[in-house]
Amino acid sequence: MASFLLFSLLTFSLSNAAAHSPPTAFHFPIRKDPITRQYYTTITMSTNITNLNLVIDLGGQFTWFSCDQYNSPSYRPVSCGSNRCKTFKTFGCISSCDGPKRPGCTNNTCLANVYNPYINWVYIEGFGRDRMNTPSTDGQFVLAGYDIKSYAFSCSTNSEALTKLARETIGMIGLARTKASLSRQLSLAFKLPNKFALCLPSSSENGLGDIFIGGGPYFMRPVIQDLSKSLSTTPLLINPLSTAPVYNVGDPSDEYFIGVKSIRIDYKVVSFNNSLLTIDEGAIGGTKLSTRDLYTLLHDSIYRPFTAAFVKAAAAKNIKRVAPVSPFEVCFSMTRANGSVPYVDLVMQSESVKWRFYEANSMVKVNNTVSCLAIQNAGLYPRTAVVIGGHQLENYLLEFDLVSSNLGFSSSLLQMNTSCSQHSLPVVALNGKYNFGFSLPTVALNGKYCVSFYFGLLNVELPVDKIAAIAIGLLPVRFVYVGSH
User: Would the pLDDT of 345 be above 70?
Assistant: First the structure.
């Protein structure tokens, strides 16, 4: 009884300490589905505490998910004509629900165009709102969970909307430049800087990637410095014409474009019509970032000289080209005797600002002896000349700063002996809600208390001079002396 009381008092103390500390940033984990290669995260909704896995869409305008099993007493529709509905720039109202009132079936509801980019289809649904609980972070550790009382999203009632999404997921979460995006809603709710960061994992077998909302610092163990201090930056550009499937006339694009000036392979500039890299008067061309596309897509007039230059540079390194392996056109025999493949540099606003891709991002291993160039031909008439796909974004820390309208990008984390999937932030769980950390066993909270799960154990470190062991149910808990703080 005394041990249980001690634990209860500790929980109460930690909960109250967190309750009076406003969050400085939030964190969501990223997993990569090995089948679809889509990236997805988990959010916690409703007073019923419902965990939902949603595919991450960097260009998605808002969050949507299937409400077939979503029975939430705290769900409310977003009324048509409300101020919130107006900020979403929707196109009307939903008033066609004949069944009993439930999430996804309400009348006089703000209309939402639910878009699944993997089948290029739009579904007419309604906006709703509900409570969301999300963990805060200091860039090193996952800390207390905070409630957003009115997070807006759309319920999908059509099962076809989930077609081609990863099996573990039931919808999508948008990070685009809109007021309904995950990052913007959290930033507005807690008065945080309008910025977020992604660290996409190449695999989630050994650890998870990261979404940070609200800004840095960002720490990637074993690197000890704050990576936000060493990011290269390039302006985020606005495409003047929307790239969404449905939009109002005159709306600009919500997606993220950058200004690539040239492309180099092993320091040599690839020769092509560089005007394709500029967004023209018809909003055609330019370079954007995408988590929807698995690999980078190049306009045919860029792709052909690019691949020819890459093959030539690879031959100079005695890397032999072999027959293509679908869906890739340019493949090589890769053995231990080969040297490293050619570097690919995207040169931004000046020669000193470049985004370099090494072998892990420029190539895909298709079997034990063959790797292929992870670049695909977008054809002669793509809307965007260069689309930097998910494979090329992996293991880089990318910060989307919408305050200064800049993209910050790290060098490859693999070159720093770390990655976006080598570890996961350990977890401090407060308010009686405990979660599992995945790699690191201890967490410092305000420099005093340390709490985290580690392989089923909850380690609680206190500045006391003794060790006590207690058990709550089947869960063993340790109190460990760590000296004065």
Answer: yes
CA-nearest of 38, 34, 61, 40 to 52 is 40
**pLDDT tens string 376-392:** 999 999 999 999 999 99
**What is the pTM (predicted TM-score) of this model?**
0.85
Contact 213, 192 (CB under 8 A): yes
**Residue type for 485, please?**
H
Contact between 174 and 459 under an 8 Å Cβ cutoff? The reply is: no
Provide the b/e sequence for 386-409 (b: ≥16 CB within 10 Å): bbbbbbbbbbbbbbbbbeeebbbb
Which residue is associated with the tokens 């670049």?
375
Q: What is the pLDDT of residues 68-78, one digit of tens each?
A: 889 899 999 99
pLDDT computed for residue 429 by the predictor: 42
Among 49-53, 152-156, 221-225, name the one with the lowest average pLDDT. 221-225
Name residues whose C-beta falls within 8 Å of residue 182's C-beta, 6 or more positions apart in sequence.
Answer: 28, 43, 63, 173, 174, 175, 196, 211, 213
Q: How far apart are CA 42 and CA 44, in angstroms?
A: 7
Separation of alpha carbons 140 and 127, rounded Å: 34
Q: Are 397 and 410 in contact (CB under 8 A)?
A: yes
Res. 13: pLDDT tops 60 = no
**CB-based contact 211:196 (threshold 8 Å):** yes
Please, which pLDDT band fits residue 336 given cuts at 50, 70 and 90?
low
* CA–CA distances in Å: residue 154 to residues 26, 209, 281: 22, 25, 34
Classify residue 235 by burial, with Cβ atoms within 10 Å: 0-12, 13-18, 19+: middle
Torsion sign (Cα): 325, 59, 359, 320: positive
Q: Are 300 and 313 in contact (CB under 8 A)?
A: no
Contact 17, 482 (CB under 8 A): no
Question: Which residue in 102, 82, 104 sits closest to 94, CA to CA?
Answer: 104
> Which residues neighbour 20 within 8 Å (Cβ) at sequence distance 6 or greater?
none
Name the residue among 229, 198, 232, 228 with its Cα closest to residue 213. Answer: 198
Roughly how many angstroms between the first and final C-alpha of the chain, as a whole number?
28
For residue 53, give the H/E element and its range. Answer: strand 50-57
Q: Which token pair is 284? A: 């055609």
Q: Give yes or no for a cis peptide into 327 (omega within 30° of 0).
A: yes
Q: Which of these, 27, 410, 394, lies nearest to 204 by C-alpha position?
A: 394
Query: Whole-angstrom Cα distance, residue 388 to residue 396?
Result: 13
Nearest-angstrom CA–CA distance, 360 and 343: 11
Question: Which residue bears the tokens 């606005």?
Answer: 238
Residue with tokens 């860029």: 302
The residue with tokens 């609200």 is 214
Element (H, E) at 89: none
Q: What are the contacts of 367-370 at 24+ separation with CB within 8 A?
A: 367/325, 369/333, 369/334, 369/335, 370/322, 370/325, 370/331, 370/332, 370/333, 370/334
